[in-house]
Every structure is written in C-alpha cells, then in structure tokens.
Write a structure and sequence with these properties.
elongated; disordered N terminus; about 140 residues; two-stranded antiparallel sheet; mainly alpha; two-stranded antiparallel ribbon
C-alpha cells in the first residue's frame, strides 16, 4: 500500500488507484506501444501467444521461448497464456509506475497536486518509452 501526500496540502491524500487511473499516455508513447504490439502480433489476431514467437509451425528457438516467457510473465495479468492489447498497455503502466521517478522541476511546497500529477505523468511517459525499447530488445 502506498499513498501520495503533499507537504503543501497534507489533508489531501491520493490512493494508488487514483494515481494509476490518472495517467494518460501521450500520442508518442501510444504510438511506440502500438508499433511494438504490431511487431509482436505476428499473425495479426489481436492477442499475443506463444505462436507469435514460433518461426515455423512446430519450431521455436530457446531464445524465442525465453522472450515469450518473459513477456507473458510481465503482461499476462489474468494468466490465461495470452496477452491482450489492454493487458499490454496496463502492463506498461504498471512497469512505468514501478520505476524510480525523480521530479526536480517542481518545488513541492509550492506545487498543487494537479501540477505535480501532470509532471509525474510526463515522467511516466518518458519511462514508458524507455521500457518499450527494453521490451523490444527482449525479442531482438
């Protein structure tokens, strides 16, 4: 459990659900996520499965299996052995929010929660773009 409390407004506390739900990916971040999704969804069926990592009908390299296993462990939230686009997007949010985010541009004592959240949202987008590159490297 975590909460966000602002020193300038100690009576206002944001629960984790509000923080996660308040993030929005910008157009550039969404474009990177969609491009990565399209590269991964080899058969174009709208879900990622082990079949998207096979190089022929019945063959899969150890590297491809390792890539699928890592991707599945990271993004398959309902553990049904496939990853939907919604799980993919939500997985990036969760990954980004688990990363350290240093925000030095705003003096906390003089910053509203709204301004702080906007700056944090920018940072989450930057982190997510970096994470897209990392996930792409899993399959390279």
């Amino acid at each position: 459990n975590f909460q966000v409390k602002m020193d300038a407004q100690p009576d206002q506390v944001l629960p984790p659900q509000a923080i996660i739900c308040s993030f929005a990916f910008d157009a550039n971040t969404l474009s990177q996520i969609q491009s990565l999704w399209q590269a991964l969804d080899k058969n174009g069926d709208g879900v990622l499965t082990v079949h998207d990592f096979q190089f022929s009908e019945n063959a899969m390299t150890d590297g491809a299996l390792a890539s699928w296993s890592k991707l599945q462990a990271t993004f398959d939230q309902d553990e049904d052995h496939k990853v939907t686009f919604d799980e993919f997007v939500e997985g990036f949010k969760q990954l980004a929010l688990s990363q350290p985010a240093v925000i030095t541009e705003l003096p906390l004592a003089e910053t509203s929660i709204q301004d702080w959240m906007a700056e944090l949202n920018k940072r989450v987008n930057q982190i997510t773009q970096d994470l897209c590159a990392q996930v792409a490297s899993w399959i390279a």
